[in-house]
From TrEMBL:
Keywords: ATP-binding, Kinase, Nucleotide-binding, Phosphoprotein, Transferase, Two-component regulatory system. It comes from the Bacteria. CDD domains: HATPase (cd00075), HisKA (cd00082), PAS (cd00130). Its EC number is 2.7.13.3. Signal peptide: none annotated. SMART domains: HATPase_c (SM00387), HisKA (SM00388), PAC (SM00086). One of its GO terms (molecular function) is ATP binding. It catalyses: ATP + protein L-histidine = ADP + protein N-phospho-L-histidine. Pfam families: HATPase_c, HisKA, PAS_9. Residues 194-245 form the PAC domain. InterPro entries: HATPase_C_sf, HATPase_dom, His_kinase_dom, HisK_dim/P_dom, HisK_dim/P_sf, PAC, PAS, PAS-assoc_C. This is histidine kinase. The keyword Transmembrane helix does not apply.
Length: 457
């Protein structure tokens, strides 16, 4: 090549930096700059060459094993041709190839090779840090997920192939309208960033909260995709909910003390006059028992303001349930509701405060009746499960929507028009004070089952 007689050109290419090779049209090395000495020293054990002078006349394929497969591309262009290649199965290099013209004549190729192994390793380390610390996903311009990292999959409980191609909307579709997401994408499509908090649902139906930042990645002044950066704030949200519930309970406590005092005074008078009435002893007994039960309820209401010790005693669970049903029989007949029992052990006993458990059963049975405006069947079941007693109260009513399930038992939350949520709130508190647990299963338009689990005695 005439080029090799041009000392000025050689001097210039040696000063540029980087590994530069001049190749003929068959990709044989005709010249390389001084920087390639470092490359030769690094790879000498793989190519059995120890100086850049020994490279002359050798094929560039000694570095690039798959060069043969790229010959057509290299000859036809387009140029510059840039690609990432693997060297000797352990190094990574970026190569750029251009046709080499000298004094207007095509003489072969100029190949620049840069070892980017260290940079790639650092990028891999950075990516691993990101994958283990940041919840990350990418969306196309329409909002469809194109990739997601492991943390995103871990939080959402979806596999990557289940996420790819889904619209970002689907994770929160139970809580937000499509228009809400359209507004978000309207903002980011202009190149602006969006930041906010979103509630979403996992594949298994669990709710979680995320702090979201959506950043447009720009190209030629326009977004070409969006990166969605998330942080799991579920714990923080739960703490906020607990604080809010605590504030509500504090307000209820103050209210309870005043209301209970105002109810108790007239109850004393009603009970006194009832005892003086000359009437059927059975009816009188029921009235007096109910007055006593109202007094107990008022006392329980007072617990919200000032808790007091509760005295537990062994009681058979079935008679308690039957007593509550007897109180509801008249209302049940009017509403065309029938009670059915499935009891395997009539002598099952629990350690309890009798009036409190009756109140729990009454609240849940009344809720079951209210859930069946056209009548239906309420099934009461009692069974032993190892060292616990499970009481089930199942209706055939309208059911509870999934997005409302987690709010059941919150003060002032009720799905009923005139409800206040205090009945179930007190019921759950009583169950917990008895060392019990509760579980709710519901399907819309099929019914709801409340299961109470109490320690057996």
């Amino acid at each position: 090549m005439v080029f090799f007689k041009d000392e000025e050109m050689k001097f210039f290419l040696n000063k540029i930096g980087g590994n530069i090779f001049i190749l003929d049209q068959d990709f044989t090395i005709q010249w390389s700059n001084d920087y390639t000495n470092n490359l030769v020293n690094k790879f000498s054990k793989y190519i059995n060459i120890h100086s850049k002078e020994e490279l002359i006349g050798k094929s560039i394929g000694m570095f690039l094993c798959d060069i043969g497969a790229q010959l057509d591309i290299l000859r036809e262009g387009p140029f510059p041709y840039e690609t990432i290649v693997t060297l000797f199965d352990r190094y990574t290099a970026c190569i750029i190839i251009d046709p080499f013209f000298y004094k207007g004549k095509y003489n072969g190729y100029v190949l620049t090779l840069k070892d980017v192994t260290e940079l790639e390793n650092k990028m891999t380390d950075i990516q691993e840090v990101i994958d283990h610390s940041i919840i990350l996903a990418y969306c196309d311009l329409e909002g469809f997920i194109t990739s997601a990292n492991d943390k995103f999959c871990e939080l959402s409980e979806y596999k990557k192939d289940e996420l790819i191609g889904k619209h970002f909307y689907f994770l929160g579709s139970n809580y937000y309208s499509r228009e809400f997401y359209n507004d978000i994408f309207g903002i980011i499509s202009k190149g602006d960033r969006w930041k906010g908090e979103l509630k979403q649902r996992t594949k298994n139906g669990l709710e979680y909260w995320i702090d979201v930042t959506i950043v447009p990645l720009m190209e030629d002044g326009k977004p070409n995709q969006y990166v969605v950066i998330q942080h799991d704030i579920t714990s923080r949200k739960k703490t906020e909910e607990l604080l809010l519930r605590s504030e509500k309970l504090s307000v209820i406590g103050e209210l309870a003390a005043g209301v209970a005092h105002e109810i108790r005074n007239p109850l004393t008078s009603i009970k006194g006059f009832t005892q003086l009435m000359s009437t059927n002893n059975e009816y009188q007994k029921i009235i007096l028992d109910e007055i006593d039960r109202i007094n107990v309820i008022v006392s329980e209401f007072m617990l919200l303001a000032k808790p007091h010790p509760v005295h537990f005693a062994p009681r058979k669970i079935v008679p308690l349930l039957k007593h509550v049903i007897s109180l509801l029989e008249s209302e049940a007949n009017l509403k065309n509701v029938q009670f059915h029992f499935h009891i395997k052990d009539h002598d099952t006993m629990v350690e309890c405060e009798e009036h409190q458990l009756k109140q729990v059963f009454l609240n849940m049975m009344k809720n079951a009746m209210d859930a069946m405006p056209n009548g239906g069947k309420i099934t009461i079941s009692v069974r032993r499960n190892k060292d616990r007693v499970e009481i089930g109260i199942a209706d055939e009513g309208i059911g509870i929507p999934q997005d409302k399930m987690l709010k059941i038992g919150e003060p002032f939350y009720s799905s009923k028009e005139n409800g206040n949520g205090l009945g179930l709130m007190m019921s759950f508190k009583i169950i917990q004070n008895h060392g019990g647990k509760y579980h709710i299963e519901s399907q819309e338009n099929k019914g709801t089952t409340f299961t109470i689990s109490l320690p057996h005695c």
